[in-house]
Amino acid sequence: MSVIALVSAKSSAVTVSALALALSAPKRTLLAECDPAGGTIRAGYLQGHSTAAVGLHQLATAERSGTLADAFDQHLVPLDGTAGHRLLLPGLTDPTQAPALAGTWDQLVRMWPVLEGEGFDVVIDAGRLLVDGGELNASRFPAPLLRRADVVLLVLRQNLTQVVAAAPAVAALRRDLGLHGTGADALGLLLVSDQKSPNSSDISRHLGVGVLAQFDRDEATALALTHGPTGRGLTARAPLLRQARSSWEQINALATRRQVQLSPGGQASVYRSVQQAVTRG
């Protein structure tokens, strides 16, 4: 099982990238829409075919009543027509609901081993980083999900403005993952082509982070992922989905390497340790 979290320093196609990865993943996949600014997949890609009766905000209520484990599966909806192989945990319908999730993020981590037993990978759309005084704002941002992810992908467009904006975010992420997470080596870059200047090697060198995925401009597919497919819909041959599919090899290679380094028993034992720590806390 791999848990991959996507974030950005500025608004830069995190949801589209997360959707592309989830729809092209080699295994069964859950896309968890955990952006505190609110989810867009329900109204966009799913074109309103999922009601507000299910989703992340309902799990916050279940967590407070101690029934999250029982309610979790009830709030997952199909992301495509592949017999439950691609599922979505819909995000918030209202950003003002975000503070109510402060105690929910750690409890969501406890659900990952259940998904592992069912053969799922997890892709987390964490939205835009919230950084205060050089530190992640864990009270308003799902920092616990990043801290227990196998790989954290910082999504940025390939232009100088985004690279400059990413530098303090990289520093905050490195510090937080090193102090509170499984290590700063979880961090990688997902570049979305824009001006292609500076080039990927220069960006990686400047930020001190390796590039794990690079998506070229594909406006037609990005539009379909944002607002929902039309006509014949999306196909596996769409350029963005092809690139996302090929990116999984390198992403999973890092995830597997880190799992081995973290624990001889693999990621499941790491999650068990986290569960025990949460329970003791």
UniProtKB/TrEMBL annotation:
<feature type="signal peptide">
    <location>
        <begin position="1"/>
        <end position="20"/>
    </location>
</feature>
<keyword id="KW-0732">Signal</keyword>
<dbReference type="InterPro" id="IPR027417">
    <property type="entry name" value="P-loop_NTPase"/>
</dbReference>
<protein>
    <recommendedName>
        <fullName>ParA family protein</fullName>
    </recommendedName>
</protein>
